[in-house]
Design brief:
globular; D-tyrosyl-trna(Tyr) Deacylase, Chain: A; 5-stranded antiparallel β-sheet; Beta-lactamase; 2 domains; 22 strands; alpha/beta; 11 helices
Length: 512
């Protein structure tokens, strides 16, 4: 069945299209301008081979594989057994394994309990928030209000007659280990949202959302941040407003293992720059902001906001009293955030959730939560026919350059997920960006046959660009493809132009 029929995807826009080949593809023969012409497989193969071997990037490695999903026939391959850095193509492995293991309808549950009793309007005891790995406690699913869940919890407490909490607000993140970052991550990425720390208790993507607004030339910019200009972070404003014609030059830094953030941007008067910046100790951040929200919502707290590691307390959840909870959207919606936005924190939280759940019944107390989660995922990959003896994945997001996989492995994974029954297959495929429509492919495929008919995951770190997913030919045949490029020194956009040319070529195949 075609992609269009199986997923009710929007029909391609049959607009005038001329393939614009940059220097990277200048050796290929163009299709006539103003047509949506079909081509034969022989012509397509020649064009693809020429594009991937162009001398402009002869110093780089290219790996590729294209498979007919109806017959299983391999239509094209190049270095398909070569191990390469996949970057965010790793998220295909993460989401496939998590969906297959937990199911598309799985939801996280974060519970709020107490070891005390309510007397009159006072909770005499501590309030514990037990984390389950949920990455979604933020504004993403709540109309942009990052405090929505905390406000709801405050309302639930007031509804039970609680106006005062005598004890502490304690965040229990013990489902995960205390290793906050992935193996091999770059130290200079740490201040930014895409390198946020993981925790079984996560709030607002474990970031603050900072805004810098230019004032008068020579003066510092104004700086504010969400949520609540929280005192969990200390902002050192070293920014400067510069002449109107000057472009914004953003510069942010955070001391390692601290929450002192330096803002050193230069910005023109009236201009705005927004950036999500990571915090250290996401668990402490979670309960710090929760405590502030409770106070603002009419529930006073006498105690402190604490990471459970700083308390020495081991709660007995079997006897504790549950006060409220939060149940996340289903996994099918969370994996769409992973793949469409290429969200690193969500991906890493999913792998560590597999590991944390496995650790509950495992005698292995030495492996990290990442290692345990990847071991669970590896079983699924092997079931999909991936040769796990030559694939090396060390995180869920693809941020690490230690990750290695092959075009044949990725295409095998895609083929396996395509063959699964609904709703597993549908949740996986629907999570992928659609060319020219949404996610990380919204700005690619603005016109042409592939627009709306390619669903694929991008992958980018320095000198690495990958694209893998599904596309439908002019005859309605679904194809799985993987395109990987490593070690190039040209602009990444030039490599992406080659990838997009290959995908558009596949979409135009008519007769075989």
């Amino acid at each position: 069945m075609s992609l269009h029929g199986r997923f009710q995807m929007s029909a391609p826009l049959f607009v005038a299209f001329a393939v614009v080949l940059l220097s990277a593809c200048s050796g290929t023969r163009d299709v006539p301008a103003g047509t949506d012409a079909m081509i034969t497989w022989s012509t397509a193969e020649d064009r693809i081979r020429s594009a991937l071997s162009h001398p402009n990037h002869s110093h780089a490695f290219w790996g590729a594989r294209v498979v007919d999903l109806e017959t299983g026939e391999v239509l094209f391959s190049k270095n398909e057994h070569l191990n390469m850095i996949p970057a965010s193509n790793t998220k295909l492995y993460t989401t496939a394994a998590t969906l297959s293991t937990l199911g598309p309808e799985f939801s996280f549950e974060t519970v709020v309990v107490t070891d005390g009793v309510v007397s009159n309007d006072t909770l005499r005891g501590n309030l514990f928030v037990r984390g389950s790995g949920d990455p979604s406690i933020s504004g993403r699913f709540h109309d942009g209000d990052e405090l929505a869940i905390f406000k709801r919890w405050a309302s639930d407490l007031r509804g039970q007659g609680i106006r005062h909490i005598q004890g502490d607000i304690v965040g229990d993140d013990n489902l995960f280990d205390d290793i906050p970052l992935g193996y091999g991550w770059s130290w200079d990425d740490e201040p930014y949202w895409y390198s946020a720390e993981q925790s079984a208790l996560s709030f607002n993507d474990n970031c603050i959302d900072l805004t810098v607004i230019g004032t008068n030339p020579g003066e510092p910019a104004t700086v504010s941040w969400r949520p609540l200009n929280t005192s969990y972070v200390a902002i050192v404003n070293q920014s400067q407003t510069v002449a109107t014609a000057s472009p914004t030059d953003e510069s942010y830094a955070r001391k390692r293992a601290s929450n002192t953030i330096f803002v050193r941007s230069t910005i023109a008067p009236g201009d705005r720059d927004r950036e999500s910046l990571s915090v250290s100790n996401a668990t402490a951040y979670f309960v710090h902001v929760l405590r502030d929200v409770l106070e603002l919502e009419g529930v006073s707290v006498a105690g402190r906001a604490l990471d459970i590691d700083d308390t020495g307390i081991v709660p007995d959840y079997a006897t504790a009293t549950q006060l409220t909870q939060y149940v996340s959207p289903p996994l099918s919606e969370l994996v769409a955030v992973v793949n469409k936005r290429s969200h690193n924190l969500y991906a890493d939280q999913l792998i560590k959730t597999l590991g944390g759940r496995a650790r509950l019944t495992s005698a292995d107390h030495d492996s990290s939560t990442f290692q345990l989660g990847l071991a669970v995922a590896e079983k699924m990959w092997a079931l999909a026919g991936v040769d796990t003896s030559v694939v090396q994945l060390v995180d869920g997001s693809g941020l690490s350059r230690y990750n290695l996989t092959t075009p044949i492995a990725t295409t095998q994974l895609l083929s396996y997920m395509w063959a699964q029954p609904a709703p597993l297959r549908d949740a996986f495929v629907a999570s992928l960006p659609v060319g020219g429509i949404d996610g990380t492919l919204a700005g690619r495929y603005p016109v042409g046959r592939a627009r709306g008919l390619v669903r694929a995951k991008t992958g980018t770190v320095s000198n690495v660009s990958s694209l893998a997913g599904y596309v439908e030919t002019s005859r309605g045949t679904p194809l799985a493809f993987t395109l990987m490029s490593n070690n190039f020194v040209v602009e990444t956009d030039e490599i992406r132009d080659v990838q997009d040319f290959v995908v558009e070529t596949l979409a135009r195949i008519g007769d075989r």
